[in-house]
Amino acid sequence: MNKGILKFLACILLLTSCQDLIEPAQENNRQLDPNAYLPSDSRFPFGILLNGYNRIPSNSWSFNDVATDDAVSNDQTNVYLKMATGQWTANNNPANQWTNCYAGIQYMNIMLGEVDKVKWVADPIASKLFAMRIKGEAFGIRALLMYNLLQAHAGVGKGGNMLGVPILTKTQTTSDNYNLPRASFDDCIKQIYTDLDSADVRLPLDYLNLVSGQESQIPTKYGTVTIEQYNRAFGVTFSGLLSGRIAKAIRAKVALLAASPAFNPNNANKWVDAANYSAQVLNLNGGINAITSNVASGLTWYSNTAEIAALKDGANPPEILWRNNWGENRDLEQANFPPTLFGNGRINPTQNLVDAFPTVNGYPISDSNSGFNPNDPYSNRDPRLKMFILVNGATAGVNNTAINTAADGTTNDGLNKVATSTRTGYYMRKLLRQDVNLNPTSSTNQRHYKPHIRYTEIALSYAEAANEAWGPTGTGTNAYSAYDILRAIRRRAGIGLANNDAYLESIKNNKEQMRQLIRNERRLELCFEGFRFWDLRRWDANLTETAKGVSIRSGAYTVLPSVESRVFQNYMKYGPIPYSEVLKYSALEQNQGWN
């Protein structure tokens, strides 16, 4: 769908250590014409592949939480703030993935069409292995980009059918027909699964170096090859690229979307598929031990200083299945530290989200068994509350500075004091490294990375799907249930340790109550990571819950019932097809409700 893509600036960033990949000399600007480069020129095709990686939407933080009941922003130009307050249209869509993902798909189709013509390395057997791996990567990236297109643009068309997006499996040229109809949602899911099968059959589970004597560990799908040839194509040098493990995790994400209420009115088998695909990924990491054995990493993967410092390029900490490359900077802290720490305080968690954290005994704060004290609301709470959200009186920054968010506070950290102050009485703490110093006289950077997929996400996906497929304690053919996953996640967080999580025990035979608890745990564990915007929509849940805050004066807590309204219509559970595309192509059917 990207007729204007005719040129590409090839930028090789990942593979500079492989000297046999840079013959002949790199050219920076090449026509996207297969005849414009020699079959021995591998630099240009690698650039095409890397363009697909660069277009993965999860490469950077979106903070689309600002368009939900979890957060607001003090930046009045924030595009998700505008979306949430009534300015979301088909030609003004901050969540649009149409151009980005179709551009990436075009590049992957070019790659798949030309990969077998390229001489990747001098050794012909190793060159075939390279082609096999790169083809697998391209199929996997194409599947991931299609998933993001469905998440952003699939929905019920004006004709009443559940539609996906046009399926493109070959390179589009200037002479092709671009006026293509949308495929059905289910056909798009099938195409994604086909691409993931094609990726999985070509890729190693992980990129590892084998040593002499480990020839038997070379998968039979690669034929008779030496250790050296295998390592050249599938060795640890390529850690961080899309692998078989990652392809399986993408399948789990896709299956959960396909099974969700907004896209699946009555097919129970889709929940079974979603649960089993998630279980396959978890079982590669020890099953439920993926949660219980990685307690610290699972909760504080973004701030474990020693763990992050020890990371090599492409390597992952225990909680992370796939991530982007780390970088040393202070961008997140600059945007989100409170004003007294020289930050702009941009993302302000809501009272709604704060209220979603239970007390430490596991009961919701609305339950009389919780022991919640509204006059001391942050005591005796789920430990994740203060890990993820900066509440009044908590400390932050390199000097453990006490932050006063009260409306009658004496600093600019207080409620609505200045343009960079909190609007809700809270600041975001999660994702931020407290060892970053923003003081202009002694500023420091620290390592950061952005996960594409975490094991906790997959575990919560399993819990959601297993509960729908088999009920809270059912396991299907797996070794654990939705209840088992929730118990492990909550115990990891420090919930219910003193009372055997009595609340969880009280609902473990109730599918509906377990569904709400699973959704709430997903809300807490994945907050600020860009999930809730999409979760509310795939659940067909309420999008219009008003964002609340808290005003603290003289030590008294008053809930602010309406910090910011959420102005969404019912049809907005599905995003629009871009207005410009509908104008250009008459075969494209818009989703219901959008112009």
TrEMBL record:
Its main location: membrane. Pfam families: SusD-like_3, SusD_RagB. The keyword Membrane applies. Residues 323-594 form the RagB/SusD domain. Residues 62-208 form the SusD-like N-terminal domain. Gene3D superfamilies: 1.25.40.390. It is found in: Cell outer membrane. InterPro entries: SusD-like_N, SusD_RagB_dom, TPR-like_helical_dom_sf. PROSITE patterns: PROKAR_LIPOPROTEIN. Keywords: Cell outer membrane, Membrane, Signal. This is RagB/SusD family nutrient uptake outer membrane protein.
